[in-house]
Every structure is written in structure tokens, then in C-alpha cells.
Amino acid sequence: MQKQTILFNLDDTLAYCNRYFAQVIDKFAEQMTVWFDSVSIDEFKRKQLEIDIKAIGKHGLASARFPESFVGTYNFFCDLTGREKNKEETDYLRQLGNQVFEIPVEPIPYMNETLTALKKEGHELYLHTGGDEANQQRKIAQLELTAYFENRIFISGHKDTTALSDILKTIDADPSMTWMVGNSLRTDIVPALEKNINAIYIPAESEWAYNVVDIELKPVSAYYTVGALYEVPDVIHRHIEGDEAI
Ligand SMILES: [Mg+2]
């Protein structure tokens, strides 16, 4: 079989991520209803999401952005309702936001089996994840991912087409035999299609609004959507064999 170069995303592709953010955001919104009884849970969540996504343009995917979005939301509603800002409360919110970076991550079902199967077949596996070094390394260590990726790990603060392009230059692989596998249309799939490599999209159980975009370009290379991570080896094999029924 022709050896392929396969780049995997980490968060919500190999291990759960969005669910931990959702848990902490729920706690945040509940706390906020105690302080601002005229505002609904949904309004807190909408504002937090807006502030969080806005900050990506400036700060990229750095971890501190998330707890700061809690403080920003708190400040917004203090200004709106005339409630006095309180340092103890903002300290508490930062601490709450940071809890998301302490929750042990769980692998997506069949993560180890999927990566083992691809590795055994001789494909070269890379990890391309967005976020900051410390938090992503924590998860990589917990999941023991260096068993599959060794030093072929890229952590990008801004995970976009430029970041992917730089990685592709570094690894110098044939685009027709290179794949990006991920859950994010915005940060995994669009960059892959723009760089004319193959892409496999695996929708997450619940998706962060930031990751959802319309695909407007027509793929030159292969582009598949699968329901689960464990389907990836079969799709790649069938593609190599020229199976048109995938
Ligand atoms: Mg992801």
C-alpha cells in the first residue's frame, strides 16, 4: 500500500474538548444568574461566546482568552445593569475559567485502535493542534500521543491556512498522498482544501460556533465526511484502492 502522510487534529478529533468548555460555561452562566437576576442564562452564554470569538482575532487560541471572556461578560453586564464591579468576583471567574484546563481529557472512542492501525500500515502520522503549548502538551502527555506522533507534533496559536502551509513546507510531503483529519470546518478542512491536500471531516458531538463555516471552494483533492474516528483507516484504504463508492 502507498504510504500516506496523515495529519490529525487533537481537540474533538482524537480527544473530547468542547464538552469540558460547555460544562464550565454552564457553571459560569449559573453563577452569573446569582449576580444579575434580570438576565437569562442564554444571554450570558451568547455574550461570552461573542467576546471569546472576537478575542481570537487578536490573541489567537491562547488559553487565557477563555477565562478573560468570563470577566469581559461580567464587566459588560455590570455596565449594563449598573452593578458595581468586584475584584473578588472577577478573580473567582478567572479561576472558574481556568478549571477547563485542569480537567483530564478522555480519548474519542477507538482513538488508540485507529492510530495503531494506521501506524502499523506504515503511514506517517502528524499532529496539528491549535492552542497554547502548555495546555496542548498536557493533553498530549495524558493521552500518550507521542507513541504515535513522536516529534511530529505542531501546535499553532493561529490555526489557519498559513499554519498548515508552513507545516506542509516543513514535512515536504506529496499533497496527493497527504491528509488532514479533523472536526473543524474552519481550522482543519478549509485550510486542507485550500492547500489541495485530502481531507476527512468528522463532525464533533457538539461544535463550537467558531469552527462552523460554509465550505465555498470546490475541493480539488479528496474530501470525505465520516461519522466516527474509527472509520478513517477504511476510508483512506478505499481511496488508495480507487474505490469510487466511498
Ligand atoms: Mg478540533
UniProtKB/TrEMBL annotation:
Any Pfam family hit: Hydrolase
Gene3D superfamilies (UniProt xref): HAD superfamily/HAD-like, Putative phosphatase, domain 2
Parts forming coiled coils: none
InterPro entries membership: HAD-like_hydrolase_sf, HAD-like_sf, HAD_sf, PGP-like_dom2
Keyword Hydrolase annotated: yes
Keyword Hydrolase: yes
Keywords: Hydrolase, Magnesium
Domain of life: Bacteria
GO molecular function, one term: phosphoglycolate phosphatase activity
CC annotations in GO: cytosol
GO biological process, any: DNA repair
Designated name of the protein: Putative hydrolase of the HAD superfamily
Organism: Mesobacillus foraminis
